[in-house]
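ARCHIVE CARD
Drawer: 12
Card no.: 0347
Subject: one protein chain, sequence and derived structure
Cross-reference: see card 0346
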Amino acid sequence: MVTKGELPEELTAVLKQLVRNGGIRIAGTLLYSYCRRFYQVDEETASRWMLAYFHREFPHELQRHRTQAAKAST
């Protein structure tokens, strides 16, 4: 069973820096990989955790990224 805990301070610092510099996709990949390897969860669980983290910590940046992705796909 996985216990709820904090991410390492170094990881949160890198995620914040990536998001501030416009690299939210890279930050998402980094967090997804961390969840998969550290907690050894399946792909769906890692994706849910990654999205939950970005919804909680970076809601405006996530919305902006989704808007830009939607514009690019049309």
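Annotation on reverse: The mean pLDDT is 93. The radius of gyration is 13 Å.
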